[in-house]
């Protein structure tokens, strides 16, 4: 059951009474509501760009890469500023607010690719600012031994929002005569609700440190790179980004392979989110029990399997269910688990900065991967491109295993 926020100074018995901290549940609620808003747009964006605006696979790869990676450096800025001013909640709130405003920006952009690119960048600025402070609040509200569980619960709630978002988008499209503008306006309203939940229910977590302790500076942040465990995790996160081609490409290939009607395209994201929300919490608990490294590596295997399924010679509903299930497993086994691995090796005073470093490495690598996959699709065709991606995922998983099972690396 979900109980009130854990006091980090309380004894083991007090901590044991709560499955996860109340602050984790509040942050999960914010993520749930915000993901309804975000996934409403994400679910229709590939169709809007590729079919509505007739973008080539390469151009879509550039936009998709920008959507996740172009403003990745802001993750470090957001994490460092949050640690510096000791106001993680405020920075997270600013990030959520920027993303909300960006939804209205899509209306103003119209059919302008430049305008859409700018609005997407603003939306990702918001995500870049909020992600590390939010995850730092989760780690600071949770004992190290329960981080897998806490991130599993948070990511499950996040996935519930991702599950509902495309369904809401589908309902809005059906009720508005296939109007993308109606989707963007509804998405904005939902995003505003998420900001309100954060302001009202999330609490800032005080770092346990002497009252006169100096605020961390740039030298302190740079010194994090000398922590061997963090360097290995940063490289592992970068490899994960390299191996990921992006949701839009996966769904576009599935739609082509299964000849799914365009009106049902948003439901592909629902299938992935369903697998994610069913598996995130159980895999988080499993990671705390057997170790987080094996669970993370299982995610690589699920990603490679997804790509191989996309290149399979047969299509139909069996392919659709298997591919979306494997893709949901990939996210459930990697997203929160990677943050749970990073948390214990970071000092409390630079928790957001350290998590931002890991997230930035992954996001920048994803930017490169998305553009390269778009090039490969244009040059070789989708089947050869996705087989190459499967090979990259296998190699990246093997290198990650060597990094994470290095002697002395925390599990």
General description of the model:
This protein has a single domain (14-205, 215-404), classed as Growth Hormone, Chain: A (Up-down Bundle), CATH 1.20.1250.20. Helices cover 78% and strands 0% of the residues. It is an all-alpha fold. Helix 7 packs across helix 14, helix 12 (267-290) crosses helix 14 and helix 13 runs antiparallel to helix 16 (382-404). It has helices spanning 12-16, 22-52, 57-70, 73-85, 88-109, 113-140, 147-175, 180-201, 218-223, 228-243, 247-258, 267-290, 292-310, 317-342, 351-380, 382-404.
**Strand count:** 0
Shape: globular
Q: Structural class per helix/strand content?
A: mainly alpha
The sequence of SSEs as H and E is HHHHHHHHHHHHHHHH
Task: State the name of the first-level CATH class.
Answer: Mainly Alpha
Share of β-strand residues: under 5%
Protein name: MFS transporter
Pfam families: MFS_1
Domain Major facilitator superfamily (MFS) profile: 23-408
Main location: membrane
